[in-house]
Amino acid sequence: MSALFEQNKLAGITLRNRFVRSATFEGMGSDNGLVKPALTGKMRELAEGGVGLIITGHTYFSIEGKASPGKIAVDRDECIAGLAKMAAAVHMNGGKIVLQLGHAGAMANAACTGQEALGPSAIPGKNGKPLCREMNQEDIEAVTERIAAGARRAKKAGFDGVQIHAAHGYLFSQFLSPYFNKRQDEFGGSVENRAKIVIMALNKIKTVTGEGYPVLIKINSDDFVDGGICPDEMLEIARLLEQHGVDAIEISGGTHFSREGYDPVRKGNRATPDCGAYYFNSASKLKQTVKVPIILVGGIRTFDTVENIINTRVADYIAMSRPLIREPQLVRRWESGNTARASCESCNSCFRPVLTGKGLYCPVGERLKKQAQQKIEEREAVLQA
User: Fold this and answer.
1) What is the number of other CB atoms lying within 10 angstroms of the CB of residue 19?
2) pLDDT tens digit string along 280-304?
3) HSE (CB half, 13 Å, CA atoms) of 83?
4) Which of 105, 164, 229, 278 fits 299 for a cystine, CB–CB 3.0-4.6 Å?
5) Which residues, 6 or more positions from 329, have their beta carbon under 8 angstroms from its beta carbon?
6) Which contiguous run of DSSP H or E holds residue 99?
7) Distance between CA atoms of 62 and 42, rounded to whole angstroms?
C-alpha cells in the first residue's frame, strides 16, 4: 500500500491517510453565522469521500473580523450546537476535522459587521482612503482573547483541533507581512515583533484548550507583493512558531494585493511543471528547517505529484481545495487504483454560487452530470420507442 493511505498521527490526531481538505469558503452559514444543514452535509460528503483531515472554511471568532456573508461563526456559545453536529457527521464517517479560526482584518466587510475594520496599520485602499484603522494595544489583547475563546468552543463542539488562519492577507497575515504592517511599536519592524500577535494568540489558545489539543497554523510562503513576506522570512516565522509549540504548519501563498496570477486561488494550472505544486520549493526548505509536520497546498492535481511530495519528504501531508469541490470522492478514487488526474479545471467557477448565496459546488461538474443524465434518458427513450 502507498504511504499516502497508511494510518498515521498528526499532532496526536489519528488519521486514515495523508490527505487534507484545505480550508475553503463554503458560504453555508446563516445570516448570524450558524451552521446550516447543507454545510454539515458537505462535510459528511468529504469524509465519505475518504479525506483524512478536513479543515473548515474561515470561521470568525469576533464579529468585526467577518469577511463576507455566509461565513460561520464561533464567537459565542450559541454556535456550539451546530458546529458539534458538523464535527459528529465527519467522525461518523471515519474522518477528522479541524476548525479554522480567522479574522479578516482590513479585508472585513463593514456591511456585514456594522463595525470599523481593524488592521496592523491604516492600510490604504484603491481610492486612497484607509481600509481599516490601526489596532491599539487594547484591540490586540481583545482579538487574542477572542480567538482563544473560539478555540475553547471548538474543543467543546468536538473538533479534533484548530487552525489559526495567518495567510492570504487576513489579519494575522497582515501583521506578519511588512507590506501591510508599518507599525513603529513592539508589534512592527522585525520578524519577531511582527509575529508577536500570532504568538500571543497561539499561547492563549494553548492555555485555554490545555495540553495535547492540536493547534495548527496556515501561513504564506510568499506574499507575491513587493516588500511582502518572502520564503526566507517565512522560515524565520516558522522557527518562532515551532519554538512556541505550534503543532503543524500549512504552507500557502498570495494575498488580494498580489501581482496578477499569484493570488491564493489562481486560475488555470500554474503549478511548476517539474513539481506540480505552487509552493513545492518553499515546502522543501521549510521541511529542512523545522521538525513539526508540514502540510502543502496549492496546484496539486495529479497522483504522481502527490506521491512525489510524500516519497521525497518535501511535506508530510497533501492538502487540496478546489479538486475536492469538483470531486468529493477523489481520495477514494485514487485509493481504489484509478489514479487519473483530478478533473478540476482550476477555473474558479465554484466561487460564483458561493458569492450569490447558493453555497459551494462546481457548476462545471453539475453541468456535465446533467448532460450525461440527459443522454441516458435520450437513449432510453429511443430504446422504448
Assistant:
1) 25
2) 999 999 999 999 999 999 999 999 9
3) 33
4) 278
5) 48, 49, 50
6) strand 96-102
7) 24
User: By the 8 A CB rule, do 52 and 4 touch?
Assistant: no
What's the pTM value of the predicted model, to 2 decimals? 0.94
Q: Beta partners for 96?
A: 53
Task: Look at residues 166, 1, 146 and name the one whose alpha carbon lies nearest to residue 76.
Answer: 146
CATH number at residue 267: 3.20.20.70
| Residue 142: burial class (beta carbons within 10 Å; 0-12, 13-18, 19+) | middle
- Give 385's contacts (C-beta < 8 A, 6+ positions apart): none
Range of the structural domain that residue 139 is part of: 3-348
Closest by CA to 49, choosing from 13, 93, 4, is 93
* Residue 280 · residue 296 · CB < 8 Å: yes
Segment 11-18 mean pLDDT: 96
Residue whose entry in the numeric block shows the C-alpha cell 458546529 = 83
How many whole angstroms separate alpha carbon 294 and alpha carbon 320? 14
Q: Which helix (H) or strand (E) holds 87?
A: helix 80-91
Q: Quick: pLDDT tens for 140-161.
A: 999 999 999 999 999 999 999 9
Judge whether 60 lies within some domain.
Answer: yes
Decide if 122 is inside a domain.
yes
Q: Which helix (H) or strand (E) holds 207?
A: helix 196-209
The total number of residues shown for the chain amounts to 385
DSSP class of 341: P
CA distance 184 to 188: 5
How many C-beta neighbours within 10 Å does residue 344 have?
A: 21
Does residue 187 lie within any of the structural domains?
yes
| Domains: count for the chain | 1
Confidence grade of residue 165 (pLDDT, cut at 50, 70, 90):
very high
Reading phi first (left if > 0) and then psi (alpha if -120 to 50, else beta), residue 224 is in: left
Which sign, positive or negative, has the C-alpha torsion 277, 283, 315, 174?
Answer: negative
CA distance 107 to 282: 26
